[in-house]
Write a structure and sequence with these properties.
- The chain is of the alpha/beta class.
- It has 2 domains: about 200 residues, Rossmann fold, CATH 3.40.50.720; about 240 residues, NAD(P)-binding Rossmann-like Domain (Rossmann fold).
- It contains 19 helices and 14 strands.
- The strands form 3 sheets. It has a 6-stranded parallel sheet, with helices on both faces. It has a 6-stranded parallel sheet with strand order 11-10-9-12-13-14.
- The chain starts with a strand and ends with a helix.
């Protein structure tokens, strides 16, 4: 099967490469000519574990191609996926202008029946706007060419996106016609053969499923972060509370971990967009609005704990930050808690030393020369009054506490992801702060 994926960012590049690995002949299309030229040379615009090897393999095997225009490949493909970005507008709603640009180009250049599939995350009802835009372009050409639209939202987790695509929890497809269903079923047949869940539904429901799923996960995170705050006030230990909650099969353990707030390209944007969609229909989503408010506050928590450790003043203090990406195994810093933490520390007069295994170049584009970039976690901690963990990379999980105690000037450690056994840093002489446990509850362990 021949397909095109328009948009060679995170979703488009992962999807296109994985479809090629499944045996499809794929054109990845992007208007950014430099990005396409780099991809032809094997240079990726993003970091994603396993993607480089998979891309190189499928280019070498002749199944993965790159183009700067849909017109270059439209006569060769049966399905076109839209995978362009939908960034938040000033009012928080999703900006679908790039989506509409693709729809118009599709209408200008198709010459036979083609299925247009929405993989970008878009507000409910966008697919129908896309359909109308294609029809207008066809009418302006005086052309009567059949086409269908479908919705196929992505549920990829950054850092494990290849695994998510190849072994998905489910594949959601919103469809309008039997012809479209037959065509996209042929593309997804490998999943059907392996008994993965391919769920067909109407287009509006498929669009809503994407937002509803991310909003639910974000809600669990914000709930646990708010509960962690209460645990600190009462003296309870949120890690023990979480264990007790997770033992209930109706609740489970996933996304019940408190921390310093969620970030990335999906949760913040999708929560805002869902609130905006409701507002457009005259309805206020109270719970989801609160989820966003809690997350904004939670991104201050590491800074507040550092300030507490130094009696309210961080002027002249040197702070080491471990991890800058919004999560491990990615260089993505969009909406990352580290951005808020660095901003607050700078305003408080602190000196900042940072290290992240993958996001140093991204950080340089954001922070410039306002922080010191270090070669590893120990380099960052050298001479620091305090160290704070913001991203739970595996290589941060078992530090040499005695070495840290020797190279650091101070002995404050803030664990923004609750990955450490408090007894270990405390026995090495650190003042240990985490999320959801007070110093009093620490001393009773």
């Amino acid at each position: 099967m021949n397909i095109a994926v328009v948009g060679s960012g995170y979703v488009g590049l992962v999807s296109g490469t994985c479809f090629a690995e499944m045996g499809a002949n794929v054109w990845c299309v992007d208007v950014d000519s430099q990005k396409i030229e780099n991809l032809r040379k094997g240079i990726l615009p993003i970091y994603e574990d396993g993607l480089q090897d998979l891309l190189d393999k499928n280019v070498a095997d002749g199944r993965l191609h790159f183009a700067t225009s849909l017109r270059e490949c439209i006569d060769m493909v049966e399905i076109v996926f839209i995978a362009v970005g939908t960034p938040p507008s000033e009012d928080g709603s999703a900006d679908v202008s790039h989506v509409m640009d693709v729809a118009e180009e599709f209408g200008r250049c198709i010459s036979r029946y083609t299925l247009l599939v929405m993989k970008s995350t878009v507000p409910v009802g966008t697919c129908f706007k896309v359909r109308d835009a294609v029809r207008r372009e066809l009418e302006s050409r005086g052309a009567d060419i059949p086409f269908d639209i479908a919705s196929n939202p992505e549920f990829l987790k950054e850092g494990v996106a290849i695994k998510d695509f190849m072994t998905p929890d489910r594949v959601v497809i919103g469809i309008e016609s039997d012809r479209a269903k037959s065509l996209i079923s042929s593309l997804y047949r490998p999943f059907l053969l392996n008994n993965y869940r391919v769920i067909f539904m109407d287009i509006l429901s498929a669009e809503m499923t994407k937002y509803a799923s991310n909003a639910m996960l974000a809600t669990r995170i914000s709930f646990m972060n708010e509960l962690a705050r209460l645990c600190e006030l009462t003296g309870a230990d949120v890690s023990k509370v979480r264990t007790g909650m997770a033992a209930d099969s109706r609740i489970g353990s996933k996304f019940l971990y408190p921390g310093c707030g969620y970030g990335g390209s999906c949760f913040p944007k999708d929560v805002k967009a869902l609130v905006g969609t409701a507002a457009a229909y005259g309805y206020r989503m109270k719970i989801i609005s609160a989820v966003e408010e809690v997350n904004i506050e939670q991104k201050r928590v590491v800074f507040e704990k550092l300030k507490e450790a130094f009696n309210g003043s961080l002027e002249g203090r040197t702070i080491a930050l471990w991890g800058l990406a919004f999560k491990p195994s990615t260089d993505d810093m969009r909406e990352a808690p580290s951005i808020v933490t660095v901003s607050l520390l700078r305003k408080a007069g602190a000196r900042i030393r940072v290290f992240d295994p993958a996001a140093m170049q991204t950080a340089g584009n954001i922070f410039g020369d306002t922080v010191t970039y270090c070669s590893d976690m120990y380099d960052a901690a050298t001479g620091a009054d305090a160290a704070a963990l913001l991203t739970e990379w595996k290589q941060f999980r078992i530090p040499d506490w005695n070495r840290l105690r020797t190279i650091m000037k101070g002995h404050v450690l803030v664990d923004g992801r609750n990955i450490y056994n408090p007894e270990e840093p405390m026995s090495a002489g650190f003042d240990y702060y985490c999320i959801g446990s007070s110093h009093e509850s620490m001393s009773r362990r």
